[in-house]
Design brief:
2 copies of one chain form a homodimer. Chain A is of the alpha/beta class and about 425 residues long. Chain A has 2 domains: about 240 residues, Aldehyde Dehydrogenase, Chain A, domain 1 (3-Layer(aba) Sandwich), CATH 3.40.605; about 150 residues, Aldehyde Dehydrogenase, Chain A, domain 2 (3-Layer(aba) Sandwich). Chain A is built from 15 helices and 16 strands. Chain A is globular.
Chain lengths: ~425, ~425
Amino acid sequence: MRQTLSEKNADVTVMIDRLGRQAKSAAGVLALASAKSKEKALRLAASALRCRSAKLLTANAADIAAAKEKNLSAASIDRLKLDPDRIEAMAVGLETIAGLPDPIGEIMASWPRPNGLIIQRVRTPLGVVGVIYESRPNVTADAAALCLKAGNAVILRGGSESLRSAQVIAEAITEGLLKADLPEYAVQLVTTSDRAAVGALLQLQNYIDVIVPRGGKSLVERVMVEARVPVFAHLEGLCHSYVHQSADIDKARRIVVNAKMRRPGVCGATETLLVDRKIAPAILPLLAKDLNQAGCELRGDAETCVIVSQVIPATEADWSTEYLDAILAIKIVTDLNEAIDHIARYGSHHTDAIIAEDKQAAEKFLTEVDSAIVLHNASTQFADGAEFGFGAEIGIATGRLHARGPVGVEQLTTFKYKLRGTGQIRD
Amino acid sequence: MRQTLSEKNADVTVMIDRLGRQAKSAAGVLALASAKSKEKALRLAASALRCRSAKLLTANAADIAAAKEKNLSAASIDRLKLDPDRIEAMAVGLETIAGLPDPIGEIMASWPRPNGLIIQRVRTPLGVVGVIYESRPNVTADAAALCLKAGNAVILRGGSESLRSAQVIAEAITEGLLKADLPEYAVQLVTTSDRAAVGALLQLQNYIDVIVPRGGKSLVERVMVEARVPVFAHLEGLCHSYVHQSADIDKARRIVVNAKMRRPGVCGATETLLVDRKIAPAILPLLAKDLNQAGCELRGDAETCVIVSQVIPATEADWSTEYLDAILAIKIVTDLNEAIDHIARYGSHHTDAIIAEDKQAAEKFLTEVDSAIVLHNASTQFADGAEFGFGAEIGIATGRLHARGPVGVEQLTTFKYKLRGTGQIRD
């Protein structure tokens, strides 16, 4: 007998509820697990992943075949695809996270009170983290490892296209957990591709402490609308590079080309270039040549089109489009203030850079642009946890609460206050 | 012509939306305001409040009269009531917050990267804070001052019973803002007593960065269910004091009486006393005498009733009731582990204390009890921002994200990353 949709949804809800209960219980054990056992679990997971290399390649080939049948784009299929090098990189990633300092128990601050009480602020795990992501299989390993290192249990809900690959990766992590005597439910993968599972996770207030959505705009928007659980918002990266009139032209050319074209599809890629009117005639023809050579399409405002040919006139929509592609919008501005205003109006509070030799202008930009990451004389593509020295990241948070910028191990923790007294009572 | 309910709700939504827009715009100015101007505004607000003392007493008398007509409880009326001393305390509170170190711009961490980039984590304001609270008029002054000090704009929605008083307080703060050349919309009071205003605030995702609900269980629960905006959860304080078998009996008596009876109505008051079986016969008769003399009703489990007379048998409901009153539930436990398990099952992750001379037992308790505040040999009534040295607080957060424990100025801030380079591009 076929199930009705509401019966199916009820089944999914029951399943997600069970995962939640198991995660909560595992989180209680993990919170008190030693640094050594967490490190051991991650190193053993890396070995288990290497041992499963052939099995993982077979599972991944089945994922790819199914994706081709569904006519997924070449870019999606590339993101999905594993090869021996990518599997080795994933194992090394697990070992890198294993080797990070353990954050739990760190005394973040300590101060005495006049009555003799000693107050300590001590780092603790967040509890249960839900990660909802799309097709890249390595997120399964990275997210699980970061959560585990921070003493959290995690429920992973990857893209349905990568489910077979993710299952093999999760299996390797479970092996690591069990061999290190940690609870197997510390890392759980949602194994149904039913989309109702995402909705059920977003409602799991009793068990999940925070949801990390890592994926495209539509996923993130769904999460923001439906979630009853706190979310580390990961909105789009509408990043700007701004060339101030005091910029060194060679430096600016190198930085802008890198900021756009190193990898145009990452969230830290520059989408809009702002150029001071005074320097535009000197730099734009050179930059246009560099970018054209690198295969970048240019869309400029009217003034840009006058200075450079081969520029498509930009429309209003271009200032708020995250291309994630080899396309750059260019706008000429009068000065620093107009640049700051433009970023405030169209930006996504992710990552923005100024290129300037005038230090005062640079400091004003760094202070006044309200983004998670602001840079002076460097590429916006540095918006990345590993580049910050965090070892790895789950994503770049654009929200303002708790985590902002790269979400690494430390951002997946919270704290408690320990007060030690000798019989103090309050007046 | 009378308005229909939906017309009224639409009006309220339009009004709240306007407050939100104004707050967002003020927040942009405040984020860049100097430490000096914020301090000046708060000191001038304190003066303006003192000047309005007579006007405030008149407004408060009208609030009290209306509350009596509505047959509010004596306790509610007491919370509502102002007198010259309470007004002076409020003014001093504004000055205390004015004198705290300015948190904005503080370099929280700084590190170089191998490529020469210097990364700084710098403290910034949260943006726009919404505070929803009940009848105590001083919250209007405290919450406004804490938010302002942290560079945030705030929208205040107090209890309708205290609206007349709150309006005079808000007027004084606005005077301080204007005299210090800060935006008048930095602090705004919702002046309708229509409950739809709360619902509208909870939906104001475009303008409000975080909601702080400060009040009783029903308010907080409504906020948790309806909010589309992030919330600093302030759930109940189901706090425990646990007397370990190694406790010093005199110390334990002093601490427990204070933890329960100093002010039984605060969220940090102990609601349940756990006592090790080995020490129960020695301490419980003495403690029962102390507590009875202090006017406290005792409700105990079966074993407690055997040891002490004048104890009402406790029911299962007593372990999860926040009395906020002169009532204490008492349970005898076998050992530390049973105490920790009881707190995990019935506690609210707020504040819990162990009384013990055995340091190892105390450390185990401090580590394993998953509460915002854990204490050794001190009263749970220290759960208070001022007692932590935070100057003042909006409340005690029981959530795990961003703010946990007392919410003072620092907890009302966030951060950004400033990266300074010399032309770095990413490989």
